[in-house]
Amino acid sequence: MPQVELLKIFLASPSDVSRERDYVEEVVEEINRTTALSKGVRLEVVRSEKNAYPSFGQGGQAALNSQIGNMEEYELFVGIMWNRLGTPTPRAESGTVEEYERAVAAFEKDGKPDIWFYFREAGANLNEEKLEQRGKVLAFKKKVQGRALTHDYEKPSDFRERFRQGLSLWLENTKANSLSTVEKKSSTPNSPSTKATVQSVTTSGNWILLNNNYYLAKSLETQSDGTISVQITTNDLEEQANLKDLKHDQFPHYSQISYAYQEEASITEVKDVILTSTGGKNLFCIALSPIKQSQENLFQDITVGSNNGKYYSADEIAEMRVKILLLNDDSLLSNQEDYLRVDSLINCSAGGKLIEPINFAELWKKRKRQKEKFLRIARLTAVYELKMSGIVEHILELKLGPIKNHLMTVEFRGTRRSRYKNKETKVIEVKGNCSLRD
Prior knowledge:
By secondary structure, this protein is an alpha+beta fold. The chain has helices at about 20-35, 60-70, 95-110, 130-145, 155-185, 235-245, 315-325, 335-345, 360-365, 370-390; strands spanning about 5-10, 40-45, 75-80, 115-120, 150-155, 205-210, 215, 220, 230-235, 255-260, 265-280, 280-290, 300-305, 310, 395-405, 405-415, 430-435. Strand 10 (about 255-260) and strand 11 (about 265-280) form a beta hairpin.
């Protein structure tokens, strides 16, 4: 039986972000269920309020610290704050702050855990006490930004999506780095590297889509005002020319470009492109401002078909559109009459964008010698089409590969935007094979 490596995640937060804390566990359970095992790992979340027991003779936070162990035992530290900093301890402004400082000390000593901090934007109508707490949160945030990776979000569901994206990418990179270390240790002058070939992907890695071209991003950060800051290093002359052409001062509307990264996609306006150099390579620093798209779901439940009528729900319409987009499959339409009557709904999105099969075959033809690069770029293309067509609001899972006999396995799970706030939408699931033949 293969060994499974345990990767521990420490979760620190005050009491006003309970929804987010539960979402962390949900996301970890989802990743353990879908992708972690295939990478030989299992993720475990430790929450001080759930994983500690009553103790006598120590201060509350000191007791927690002794029970949750050394921070060096954890691979990732996740902090979350909204309007409360938390309850002060003898050693820090709050228990959460103390846990963060312990994580920083461990990182500076041993290089782990990685440290992330999420900050929820403030709600309205804060009383005097909450305003004081909010001021402390903002002061702490400024302190954290100089030392750790921070993210802003508006509401708990946004946090869930951002955390899931980040954790998936982190796991991908963590295992890739681990594999690289093993290869270096095991390789000798007389024996080739035993590098494993990537057969399937569940993230797009650090690949980014800009103006229908693909680049490997050195870094990407979303600012509190929504501005996206991207850094790309390249010495490729064609890539350099394309990046320089992103900004059109004379014709601003030409600076509106397609953008996709991980599970996010939009039309963005290029605010700035700055070219510098680092380590003998050209470094492009690009500032993007997303242009808000209409999220209105125009597809209500309809009845189509022959004399008796065939009922297609909005979720079924969305599933048909996903199948057409990812698999070039319209088999859910039961007969030709259904097809003719519902075709206009399926093949046109809320924004008027035609739903057409993604030309994976063309991407494959250009990159078949670089299978991993193809899979990540193909996945990024699918994210862009799924999001920009308005088919889904959240992508829960999108796995491409393996590829066998010119057929690529595709597995997708996602949800569309609900028309009603109190009604959860059905999870749309699609599995099948997409042909990569011309």
